[in-house]
Amino acid sequence: EEGDFVEGDDFVAIGERKIIKPFVEKPVDANRHDVRIYFPSSAGGGCKSLFRKVGDRSGQWNPDINRVRRDGSYVYEAFVPTGGIDVKVYAIAPSYAHAEARKSPAVDGKVERDANGKEVRHAVRLLDDQKRVASKITSAFRQGVCGFDMLYTPIGTSYVCDVNGFSFVKGSEKYLNDAAALLHTICMASLRPARFLEIWDRRQEEVAASGDTDDVEDRRTAVRRLSSAMPNAPSPRADGVSGEELLAVLIVARHGDRTPKMKCKVNTGDPALLSLYHRWAPEDAAAKKKEVKLKRPRQLRDAQQVVAKLVEELASSTESSDLASSAVDDSDERKLKLMHEVLQEGGHFSGLNRKLQLKVKKSAADESGLFRATKLQAIMKYGGLLTPCGCHQAEAFGRDAAATLYPGGAAGLMRLHSTFRLDFRCYTSDEGRVQQTAAHWIRTFLNLDTSTGDITPILFNYINIDTKMLDEMPHAVEATIERARARIGELVDSDPTAQDELRRIKLHLTAICDHFCALYKSALGRAGGGGDDSLADGLSFHTAGKVADLQPAVKAAQGDGSETSGAASDDEREDKERDSLVRQSDSPEPAPRLLSRRQKKPALGESLYSAWMRWSSIRRAFLRDEAVEGDSPSTAFDLSKISDIFDSAYYDTVHNAHLRLPQVVELFAAIRQFATRVVPNEYGGLPTRRLKIGSTICAPLLSKLTKDIDKCLSDPSRPGVV
User: What are the DSSP calls for 323-363, one per residue?
Assistant: First the structure.
C-alpha cells in the first residue's frame, strides 16, 4: 500500500523492512525493461537508467533523479557490485552450460560492438558452484534449453537475477556444435534408446580396431563426457612467448591535481548553532562532549540555513564592514560569511567535499538534569576537490597503464578482465578526491565510456574504501616527527638566508591578501553601482543600502578612475588599455581596475571572497599570534604551514593565471625553494630516520602488497592481481 511505503534521502522502506542506497528498482511487469539503479547522496546521488539496447546505448546516467517512481509496481533489491562484468549463461539439460561475459550496462551504458556490429562478449570458465546453479535452474524451471543472467561479485559469491526460456548463443560455433551433439544424444536416447546404443557400440568398436585404445570409452563415461562438455576459455599468453609469465601488477598512486584544502574555525555560543548541534547529536553527546560531523545533504542544508540567518543578522546589526577593516584580520563575521560562501557553492551537497564539525567546548545541565552544550567550535572543512586537470591526469595514467603494463596491450588486458582471469581490485581512502581519481583512472584503464561524465556507477562497481591502509598516523611516530620539526626550527634559526626567505614570504603573503581584497572591493562596488552582478560572488549577505554606503571606500580602492559598465565594447576597450599599461609599467602589479570583468572571477567556481579568505587564513596560520618582536624565526613563523602555502601558490599559479597575480608567481618561486629543503626533513633529517617513519606509517599498505605478491607466487594458476 502507498501509505506503508516510506522514502528517505537514501532509503526506501515498507513497514520495518528497509533498503539502503544503492538499490535496484525493477518493474513487476516482466515486459517492462526500464530498470533503475539509485545511488546514495554521499556519492553524489543520481540514478542509472537501464533499458533494452538502442544503437550503442543500454543505459543513461541521470544525475538529478533521486526519487523513486510512483507510477506502478516495482521490486526493490540491493545493488550488487560485480566489478563491471555481467555473465550470460546458456544451459542445456541439467549438465551443460556455456557462459559469456560482457561489460555491465550499469557501468557506463555503452554497448561495445565488434566489426560486425555484434556486442563484444568473451567465453568464460564457470566455477563448480556456478555449474551446480545452472543444473538446478534447468530442473527447477523445467527448461531444458534456457539462459540466465548471473552476477559474480569480487568476493566470489554468485547471484542469478534473470531467467529466460529457450535462449541460444548467437555466433558461437563451438556452442552450436556442442548443443547439436548434446540435443541429438538426448533425443536419440529418449526416442530410440536401442538405436542410440547400437550406434554408440559400433563407433567404439571402430575406434578399438584402429588400435587407438586411448580413445575407447564405456557408455557411462561417454554420456557423462557429452553431457558435461564445457567450452574452456582460451588461455595462451597474449604475446605467444613461452617462459616468464606476468602474475601480478600492483600500483600505488596519489590523487590528481586538487584545489587547496582549507579549514575555517569559529568559537560561538549562538543559540542557533547550539540548536543545530542538538538536532543532529545523540542525546548524551553534550554530556560526553562528543563532536557532530555534518556531511549528509539534509544536514548541510540545515547548516546552510542557520549560517545564512546568522550572517544576515550580523550584516544588519553591525556598523563595520569588510571594506573598512584590514585585509588580513580575523573577525568571526568574516568567518561566518566564508562558511556561508562554502555552503552555498555549487548549489547542491554531495557529501564528498564539504564537512561541518561541531565540537563542544562547554556544557552544563539544565533544570531537568539534561546536559546541553553552551559553547561550540564550528569547523568547516572544504576544498581539496579534484580539478579538471586532475581528472585528465588520472585518465591519461589509466590509458598508459593499459597500453604498456600487459602483454598484448589494452586488448590483452580487456580479454583478461572480461574472462575473470584478471583479479581486479581497487582500494582507496574515504577522501572524495582520492575516490574520484581512482574512478577516472578505471574509466580509461578498462576502456569505459568517457563521454557521459558519470563516475558514480564506477565508484560502486569497482572501488573498495579502506581507511586503514594509509590514512592513519600511528602514535609511535608522532614524537619522532615532532623532534624532526624541532630540529628544522633550530636549523632555520641559525641560517640568516632562511630567515631572509621567511621575511620575504611574509611580505608576499600580505601583498596577495591586499590584492584579493582590492579585487573583491572592486567587484562589490560594481554590484552596488549597477554593473556586472556576476562578478560580486558571495555578496548575498549585503543589503542594497549597505552596498551603496560603501561606494566612497570602493572608489578609493579603485583609484581615481571610474569604469563604464554594460557594453561588450567597453570590455574590449578595457582589455586593450590593460595590455598597453601593463607593457609600459615597470611595476609587476597591475592595478585591480586594469583587469577586465571577465578576468576577475577565480577558477573552478571559487568566489573572490573565498579566495581572499583563503589567503588571509593561510597568512594568519603562518604568522603565530603569540609571536612578539625579537622572537626567533621558528617561533614567529609556523614552519609546518610551508606545505599549505606551496599548495595554494601552486594552485593560483596554474589555475588563476588569468587574474594576473605577479605576487603569487614570485611567492611560488620563493616557497618552492624553501619547501624542497623543509618538507622532506619533517619526516626525519637522516635517511635511516625517514625509512623508520615511512615504514611505520605505510605498514598496513606494505603488508597488503606483500600478501598479494605471496599469493601470486604460491599459486601461479590463480588470476592475476592488479
Answer: TTS-TT---HHHHHHHHHHHHHTTSS--SSS-EEEEEEEEE
Q: Is the pLDDT of residue 351 over 70?
A: no
Vertex 146: Cα angle to 145 and 150 (nearest 5): 145
Output the nine-digit C-alpha cell for 139: 530442473
CA angle 58, 60, 63 (to 5 degrees): 160
Q: At what angle do helices 699-714 and 687-697 cross, to 10 degrees?
A: 70
SS3 514: helix
359 has pLDDT over 60: yes
Task: Assign 570 to helix, strand or coil.
Answer: helix
Query: Phi and psi of 665, rounded to 5°?
Result: -60, -45
Spatial contact of 444 and 458, defined as CB atoms under 8 Å apart: no
The runs of H, that is alpha helices, within 463-567 are 475-493, 496-528, 544-549, 551-558
Nearest to 714 by CA among 706, 170, 722, 461: 706
* Cβ(181)–Cβ(168) below 8 Å: no
608 beta partners: none
* 3-class SS letters over 454-475: CCHHHHHHHEEECCCCCCCCCH
Q: How far does Cα 544 stand from its chain's mean position?
A: 40
Cβ–Cβ under 8 Å, residues 720 and 416: yes
Mapped onto helix, strand or coil, the DSSP state of residue 521 is: helix
Reduce the DSSP state of residue 625 to 3 states and report it: coil
**Beta-strand relationship, 720-721 and 422-423:** parallel
> Largest Cα–Cα distance in the chain?
113
Distance CA 76, CA 21 (A): 10
In angstroms, the first-to-last Cα distance of the chain is 48
Spacing of C-alpha 163 from chain mean position: 35
The most confident of 533-537, 621-625, 703-707, by mean pLDDT: 703-707
* Closest C-alpha to 615, from 504, 502, 509: 509
Phi, psi of 281, rounded to the nearest 5 degrees: -95, 150
Among 72-81, 156-165, 279-288, 631-640, the range of highest mean pLDDT: 72-81
Give the pLDDT score at 469: 77
The angle subtended at Cα 559 by Cα 557 and Cα 562, nearest 5°, is: 105
Are the CB atoms for 100 and 121 separated by under 8 Å?
A: yes
Residue 149 has pLDDT above 60, yes or no: yes
Q: How far apart are CA 600 and CA 706, in angstroms?
A: 51
Distance in angstroms (rounded) separating the CA atoms of residues 178 and 171 = 13
CA gap 666, 677 in Å, rounded: 18
Residue ranges of alpha helices (H) inside 232-354 are 271-280, 285-288, 297-317, 332-344
At residue 260, the pLDDT reads: 92
The CA distance from 399 to 120, in Å, is 20
Q: Which amino acid is at 618?
A: I
